[in-house]
Structure formats: C-alpha cells, structure tokens
Amino acid sequence: MVSHKSTLGILENNWQAETRGQHTYETLAARERDVNRRSALRGLAYAESHHAELWAERIHALGGPQPIYRGPSTGDADSLANRVGGDGLALRRLELDESHDIAKYAKQLESFGDERTKSVLRQILEDEREHYRILNSLIRERRPLPKASAEEAQAALKELAAARPEGLKQTPAWIGDAIYGVNDGLGAIFGIVSGVSGATLGDSRIVLLAGMAGMIASALSMGSGAYLAAKSEREIYDAEFARERDAVEYNEAEAREVLSLTYQIRGLSREDADRFVDALAREKSELVKALAHERLNTTADALSKPWVSATSGALSTAVGAFIPIVPFFFIGGYPAVIWAAAISLAAHFAVGAAKSLLTIRSWWSSGLEMTLVGAVEGVVTFLIGIGLGHLGGTGR
After folding, report:
1. Which domains does the chain have, with CATH numbers?
2. If 8 and its partner were Cys, which of 39, 64, 150, 243 is the partner (CB 3.0–4.6 Å)?
C-alpha cells in the first residue's frame, strides 16, 4: 500500500505530466495547417487539461497543496529532439509517451488502495488508450483498406513471416563496416600523402611519418566511432524492447490491437491480421519481438555487435590508409608520388566496386565514381601542398 505522502507525490507527478502534455498538444495544434489534424490535437489538449483537473481535485481532497506547473510553456513541442526531427517525430514521441502513460497508470491502479483515486485512474487510463489510437491514426494517416481475398491474405502472411528474423538472410554488418573503413582510410591518407608530397617534393621520410600518424589516428577514430554507433543502436533497441515488453505485460489487448492495425495497413483484412496476432500471442516473447520489430524495423539479430564493428572498422581503415604510403618505403620524390597515385586510384576503384555488394548500383559505375572522387581529392590536396610548400619554403 502506498503511503499518504507518496500518494501526493505520485499524483503531483501525474498532474505535471498531464499539464505538460496539454501545453505540447496546444502548441502543435497552433502550428498545424490541416484542419482535421488541428482539431484532433486540440481535442487531445483538452483531454489532458481535464486529466490535470482530476488530479488537482484528488490532491486537494487528500489535503495536498495546489500544484504549480514547472515545465516550459510549449511543453515538449520545442524540445531539441522535436525541433530537429520536426512535428512528425514529435507525434511519434507523443505516441510512445502515451504508451508509457498507459503502462504507468496500469501499475498505479494495482498499487493504490483508495477507491476514489482508482476510479480516476480507470477513467484516465481509458482516455489514454484512446489518445494512443488517435496518435496512431495521425502518424500513419490510415485510410479505408481494400478487402483482401483469401489468396492475397495468405501471400501477405507469408511475406510477414519471412520478414521475421529467422526468415531473412542479411549481409553481415561487419562487411559494410569494413568496406566503408577501407574507403575512409584510403581517402583520408591519400589526401594527406598528396598534400605532404606536394609540399615536400615527395620527401619519403616526411611523407611516411605523416602517413603513418594519419593511419593510426584514422583507424582509432573509425574503430571508436563504429563501436559507439553500434553500442548506441543496441541500447536504443534494448530500451524500445523493454517498453514493448511492459506494454504487453500491462496492456496486452492494446499491444495486440496496435500490431493488428499495423498488419492491416500492409493489406491484411482485420480477420486475418487478428488471426496472425493471435498466433503470435501464444508466446508473449514472440508478441514482444513482433512489436519491437515494427517499431524499429529491425531485430536484435540484425544489430551490429559493437566490438565486431570496432575491430572491422579499425583494421579496414588501417588497411586502406596503408595503401597510399607503400611506395614511399621503397622510393622517394615524384616517382613515389606517381606510384602512390596509381595504386591509390586502383584501390579506389576496387573499393567502389565492392560497395556494389551493399547497393543496387553496378560495380563498374560505383568503382568509376570512387576513382573520380579519389582523383579530384588527390589533385586538389597535391596542389594545396605545393602552395603551402612555397609559402613555408619547405623542401626548397
């Protein structure tokens, strides 16, 4: 049972959240140009305001002080994430917030012993579920769906099943990290070698020092960047997976409805979509996986492994970076520069052709594009190096 002081704290937090939601919806409604969407957002703002009033009444009835709003006047509408992502992302975040509120209020319903407070919770919980459905419709702008024949439904079911982790063979993520690592190292160090060669007339000692230092720095940078990117991606997935697990735990009916609507959007009839979701729901873990897959459009198995990404990124960058400096181990001056340019451009073509493994472009088109980019980069940095050499008197 929750203590009186804790109850007041929880209710005050509820009031703050509903008031913040009210300001968020009001701000988004004021910016919305579409009449129907603006009307829906205003309706949500009014509902959040009503919820705040209900919580304020309960706080007053339990002897608590009048709550004072501590958030921004625009709610979450002007948060950094929403300003960067736009109103579409703001609605998506609000949809997630509503699902969190549903889970939160469901937990509170189990912990409170005060029947009057539980009555308010039941009313608000029902409203929040409706809010979730409204936001779902606004985000996806659902239209009436055509009826699917039995054959079309079966085909769609097979397609959905194939989209699940065990039904789809994907290119290992480390291959992409390796290709782009080679590309990054090759491009960066070819530029350094060209520039330093132009400034020093191909002094092999200086070019080797600059090239080796750049190779180490590029490899460490690419490896750490790949590690952090893969780790962040996995952390986001884990957080979303936990949210979907909570949604199934505290509101399975709502979770099943959301998944059914998702499959209906893809073309299934309501009956077939419900039947498919029922089959998934026999194992709660499968239902959670399906929800997480629809939210993030990926699965845990498809995510990059941080250390694998870091290792492949760092090693491939080092390999790519080492190529332009190889001639300077054996010769110096302009002959070394010419040989470095030749093998670097050949490597650019090979990397570009390899990129076609991850894209739909032809290997020769991708290879020629990379070669052209490398040539322009080499010429520009070489000329800049010559200019800097003249200015500093280096190598003269």
Report:
1. 4-140 (1.20.1260.10), 173-235+305-392 (no CATH), 241-302 (no CATH)
2. 64
